[in-house]
Amino acid sequence: MSSSSIRVAHPVWRALGLAGLLVFTLWGALALWYPTAGWPQRVLPWLWGLLGLATAGALLARRRAGRALAWTWCLAAAALLIWWQSLAPSNDRAWADDVARMVYGTQEGSRVTLHNVRDFRWRSDEDYTVRWDTRTYDLDQLDSVDMVLSTWGMPAIAHTLVSFGFEDGQRVVFSVEIRKERGEQFSELGGFFKQFELSVVAADERDILNVRAAARGEQVSRYPIRLSRPAMRELFLAYVAQAEALRETPRFYHTVTANCTTLVYDMALAIAPGLPLDWRLLLSGYLPEYLYEHGALDTAEPLQAWRARADITARLAQTPLDDAYSRAIRQDGAARATP
């Protein structure tokens, strides 16, 4: 390499090194902020950030202290990474009421009994009546699957729920959610930094749909999915198996790789191995387009008509929370999809 090439390469590598230092400093500050609480959260991210900025400034100015600061930063970075790898998910924390229990199931033949089915009555997001049930479902009577999307101001981002309907009128909704501790609030950014554990919630529609539409003011849409009965059964059992797995081995929620949509995709992939990976699995507000393209929605009518008909927000907010709730919220809505 010529001397001129070395002179050009040197500042390039220097700039890349400084950029990497600053990026890792930002990552480290967030990594120290989100999983921690109390004085560590108030102190450690700022100390780490100041060390990174001081190191970058000294190296940029080519001060003598730059090398010593760089070694100090490297040692601190190594300690940070060791600590980060030591963080482990747990099922033993002071959980918020709505995720305090974990659903699990037992099966005898075609009958599955779910324990800890949530059936809260929500007057607001902070005012509710706690109720957990044990319910039995006959998989031979399983005859419908609805995908429910809930959005809250960002149309591209949605929470995905799956509702299973039975011929005897029973319904149960599965939802992959963060398992919040008391006082915690959901944060997309915190979901990148081991702030939350992962949970599968099984709930009555009067609980989990009503809280999103009426108590939280979210927009809720329902899409009947075209699935064969064997596929419905496999998807139901996949949720039960996922809930059991998380009960036995806790796992961190991740905003991109382990969330309410990607886990549904993983379970559906076991049923339909050819199901393609798609960017709309991340921007889940566009899932209806994905389902439409792959035949999970009836293509006899335009997608725009599906979207308009799927919105049940107003109906959810106005429907009494009685035994006719599930039937009432489906009146004048999308017809049941059949494969």
From TrEMBL:
Residues 129-285 form the Lnb N-terminal periplasmic domain. Pfam families: Lnb_N. Keywords: Membrane, Transmembrane, Transmembrane helix. The chain crosses the membrane at residues 12-33, 45-61, 68-84. This is Lnb N-terminal periplasmic domain-containing protein. The keyword Transmembrane helix applies. It comes from Bordetella trematum.
